[in-house]
Structures are given as structure tokens and as C-alpha cells.
Design brief:
Structural class: alpha/beta
CATH class of the largest domain: Alpha Beta
CATH architecture of the largest domain: 3-Layer(aba) Sandwich
Strand order of the largest sheet: 5-4-3-6-7
Number of helices: 7
Distance between the termini: 48 Å
Largest sheet: 5 strands, mixed
CATH topology of the largest domain: Glutaredoxin
CATH superfamily of the largest domain: Glutaredoxin
Length: about 180
């Protein structure tokens, strides 16, 4: 073979391999994670089939795993001005290890109801009784050590996420994902 064709064939092979990997790579939603399908009850006693019955095509979910993480979640509520911005649909999702006993679940729900008296707060609060570790793995989070903010679609795909306290750069990326059109 001519020495001139060797570099050209090398470049063609490299381009073909890159194209093949691009086509074969997983969809970005798979990489970010997926919220498992679960029937939950908001604190206002409304049943919700997640993720199909999320309030909009793209919903912001503030996820907490421990009580002390509510301050991190609150930083996102304030930072994104969620109480004033009606363009963003959002929920609070406390992920609780399922005790496996209905009486214990009712006790946990009653404590949540006692702490959350506001009607709007109860409508946004959707406690999830499930396995925390499995939820973390499914959604692609790094751990349950911090509050997380997820952008979800009604198929349960995690379209964007952030962990920890409010960060304006992460917030901008979340907002862009939330408000992006589904073309």
C-alpha cells in the first residue's frame, strides 16, 4: 500500500470508530438516572403516581434523605425564588426508608403533617417510602449525604441534577433544562 494512503485510512478508521461510538452510546437520560415508578400520597392526602402524574412535563424535585438536609433544600427554594416563580413546577420529595409496617408509616406521616401546617406546603410535599440506597442508585446520585435537586420528566428520566446547597451556576443549568422545550 502507498505511504500516502496509510494516514488517510487511519483518519477514516478513527472517524468511523468515533461515529460508531456516538451512535452506540447510551441516551443522556440513562446516564443521569431514572426515578422509579411509585404510588405516593402528598401530605394533602392526594394520591400521586410518580412519575406519570408529575405536575408538568418537566418538574423540579427537591429531594431530602435526612431532616438536617431541609436547610440545603430551602437554599434552593430561596435561590431559585420558587415561591415567586410560577413558571417552575416543583415538589419536595423526602425519601424515607420504608419501615415495612403501615402503623409506622402513619406515625411518620403524622409527624410530617404536624411540622407542615401550610396548605401549599402540604400540596408540594410527597413523602416516598422506599429503599433510600436503591433510590440513590436509580437516580444516579452520588449519595444520600446531601439534599438533591432533580429535573424530572413524566417518564421518570433525570434530565439534570445538583447536590448540596444552592449554587447559582448549577441553578442556571437546572433552570435552562426546566424551561427547555421538548422538540
Amino acid at each position: 500500500m502507498s505511504p500516502i494512503f496509510t494516514p488517510v485510512l487511519g483518519w477514516v478508521a478513527a472517524a468511523g470508530t468515533a461515529f460508531g461510538l456516538a451512535v452506540a452510546s447510551p441516551h443522556e437520560n440513562w446516564v443521569l438516572g431514572k426515578v422509579p415508578s411509585i404510588v405516593a400520597e402528598r401530605l394533602d392526602r392526594t394520591t400521586l403516581q410518580l412519575p406519570q402524574e408529575l405536575p408538568s412535563a418537566r418538574t423540579l424535585a427537591l429531594v431530602v434523605f435526612q431532616g438536617h438536609q431541609k436547610e440545603e433544600a430551602r437554599s434552593w427554594i430561596e435561590g431559585l425564588q420558587l415561591h415567586r416563580d410560577s413558571s417552575i413546577s416543583w415538589l419536595k420529595l423526602p425519601v424515607l426508608n420504608d419501615p415495612g409496617d403501615e402503623t409506622e408509616r402513619r406515625g411518620i406521616l403524622q409527624r410530617l403533617l404536624d411540622r407542615h401546617q401550610d396548605k401549599d406546603d402540604r400540596a408540594r410535599m410527597v413523602p416516598l417510602f422506599t429503599n433510600r440506597d436503591a433510590f440513590v442508585r436509580a437516580t444516579g446520585l452520588s449519595s444520600a449525604d446531601h439534599a438533591s435537586v432533580l429535573v424530572l420528566d413524566r417518564q421518570g428520566n433525570v434530565l439534570a441534577r445538583a447536590e448540596g446547597r444552592f449554587d447559582p451556576y448549577k441553578a442556571q443549568a437546572l433552570r435552562e433544562t426546566l424551561l427547555a422545550r421538548n422538540d
